[in-house]
Amino acid sequence: MPNPVGAPARYAQALLGLADDKRAAEPDVLDRIAADLEGLLGLWRDDAGFRDFIADPRLGAAKQRAGTFAILDRGGIGTEVRNLVGVMITNRRLASLPAVAQAFGALLAERRGQQTADVTTAHPLSETQRTQIVARLTEAGLSGVRLSEHIDPSILGGLIVRIGSRLYDNSIKSKLQRLQYAMKGAA
Predict the structure, then answer these.
(1) Backbone phi, then psi, for 142, in 5-degree steps?
(2) Checking DSSP bridges between strand 145-151 and strand 166-171, what pairing results, if any?
């Protein structure tokens, strides 16, 4: 996701611009905002209740604001991300929060010369699995790799990794499809 597009990218660009404006007064503001967004993305990834809450279009802005800000307060999320979430709630775009967090991470990684690996799995990754994936990619000659995770239960298991134009598909779904093609060819 080197060049994010659409509304999530615009929100991410705006947040990056705000962080740039604040860097003179607070040199580590980019890292702090990135950590806040990573924390929210991790919560979204690991907590089905939170995923359902932010994706529920039936909730009004007041309920979304109260529920989301309670979560942000508990997580110690900073003012910039709180303000971003407030704007997203007002614009009825809270469901895009994970995409905005990923777009911000991709923009920041690009700025820092890091490579983003889009990893799709059937189930959320554990911290150990994340570490192992980064280690394998580093062994393969990639440096400064950061993961952008997606969950797709339809792949059944395994994982799909996309880095730029390279695709590594080790999903059970693909293995079954290859087996099916091989069996058709043998018949």
Answers:
(1) -90, 145
(2) unpaired
As a whole number of angstroms, the distance between CA 54 and CA 120 comes to 21
How far apart are alpha carbons 98 and 39 in whole angstroms? 11
Angle of CA points 26, 28, 33, to nearest 5°: 100
* Tally of CA atoms within 13 A in the half-sphere of 52 that contains its CB: 3
Q: What is the pTM of this model?
A: 0.68
The span from the CA of 10 to the CA of 76, in Å, is: 25
Residue identified by tokens 């040199």 is 27
The residue behind tokens 């705000």 is 18
What average pLDDT does the structure give for the chain? 88
| Residue in 12, 3, 157, 33 with CA at minimum distance from that of residue 98 | 12
- Residue 5 is predicted with a pLDDT of 63
Q: Which pLDDT score, from 0 to 100, does residue 90 have? A: 92
- Residues contacting 92, CB < 8 A, separation 6+: 61
Residues of the chain with pLDDT under 50: 1-3
